[in-house]
Amino acid sequence: QVQLVESGGGLVQPGGSLRLSCAASGFSFSQYGMSWFRQTPGKERELVASISNTGGSKNYADSVKGRFTVSRDNAKNTVYLQMNSLKPEDTAVYYCKVIAMNYWGQGTQVTVSS
Fold it and tell me: What is the DSSP letter of 45?
């Protein structure tokens, strides 16, 4: 079955960086676009970034443009989210998702605090 396992979250100071990974299995990874979402308590999940199946097309939320970079390695069935210049408002649980399929990972907590 489809499995998505996020990792790489943690506690980081404002201005710092983290790289999230999402390891995928159970489907033809290279044929599907992938997305990263985030969620804070009491709010709906917010789309952060998405990437096409080949990696040739990427889109970002305005709030993260210029700071976050989404990438993928189809040989490793993994999608990444490089997060730089982190701000306290980036604190959330980050999830990866297969575009066009309703499968989510368990999420990884990112906390930006001094």
Answer: -
41 CB burial (10 A radius; 0-12, 13-18, 19+):
exposed
C-alpha pair distances (Å), 90 with each of 19, 78, 93: 13, 22, 9
Torsion angle, CA of 19/111/33/24, rounded to 10 degrees?
70
| Rounded Cα distance, 63 and 43, in Å | 16
Per the structure block, which two tokens stand in for 60? 């970002």
Place of tokens 């976050």: 68
- What gap in Å lies between CA 71 and CA 82, rounded to an integer? 8
Q: What is the pLDDT of residues 9-42, one digit of tens each?
A: 999 999 999 999 999 999 999 999 999 999 998 9
